[in-house]
Amino acid sequence: MNILERLVYDRLKKSPALKSLARDFYQSLFDLVPVKKVWSKNPITVREGYFFGFHDHCPFSADNTMLLANRYDIPLRMPEKGESVEVGYFSGSNWETFTPLCKSRAWNWHQGCKLQWRGNLNQLVFNDFAHGKTISRIYCIDTGTLRDLPEAISSISGDGQYGIGYSFARVQKCMPGYGYPYETDEPDLNNPVTSESGIYRINLDSGKIDQLVSIAGLVELAPEESMNGAKHFVSHALFSPSGNRFTFMHRWFKGDVRNRYSRLISMDIQGKDLHIFPARDMVSHVAWRNNEEILAYCRVNNRDAYYLFTDQTGSFKIIGPDVLLSDGHPSVSPDERFVITDTYPDRTRRISLLKYDMEKEELEKLAYLIHPRKFQSSNPYHNWRCDLHPRWDRYGEAVCFDSAHTGTRSLCTMKV
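^ that's the sequence the OP posted. Answer follows.
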């Protein structure tokens, strides 16, 4: 992002509709300029017709031999009721052979079906729609059996004992494209504030559900003036590596769903020791570095940047203040030293894949890719953009990301 682009961004960041119009016009001018469409430091393996989803879960099995994936067969549009993705994994040399396992009818382009491994077990967990509601399912690779859980999940603890979740129906109404296309009889779904919905914990063995905090409870927690008259929801819950704590976003808006406020909160697995991080108004993407530190792109003291927070304290510092200049989807390497992240399309629709060394404070560009204009989301209700959402493998030797640089949404891997 150059100086002019940063100036326009800062002026329009509170007017998302105008920001989108300015972006579209600016990019259309540069469509006339010929640019190299693909560059990468190392070869990219492309698996067309597959994707994983968000950046916050590792798709690689504990032994790094299997790579989770969703296979889709619908055109480039929003998923409709009853349409499914095929859930499975790639294995073999360079993860080239796909094994289909089952299907999910609860998915979106940004987060897939929240597909993830259950700890170190040969079991995968994903969301689905059945019996008139959104649920989650556990598939055991060793036995080929499938077991239902009563609610959808967002994140699984590292020991595979618990899941945490929230109302994806409420998310779909408040943040279209991150929920699922189903009407439900969920109570208080249309109410701005509710005590019926919030963050819940699921015991993955017994299926027991415990609500940890309600939306009404969050609204009462250090209320802000912008909350008055707003509709509230929660999203993006994510366990720490140990599973003892987790983070989530408390969000609210008035009118345009894009004009939302966010704050980042952590709590323990019992729903105690809540901590509100010192970010204000905007929090976009989060990654745990370890059990104490959280990396987030957010706004602190009216400055948007990558911040490294220490949980349950007011301590923080900016990461890459002179080189990491725009929002992205971070993932921290297993040795806690490197951050892999991406950018949104620039004026030439070029998306960068970046690696930042937190020890040496150095940035390395791994690739840049140009996505066709058709992958640009025109509005919140036509939300099929393809972000890279990069994710480390278990050894810190390769990354997995989604890309549409071939003209087709694809699951990609690259050695780093």
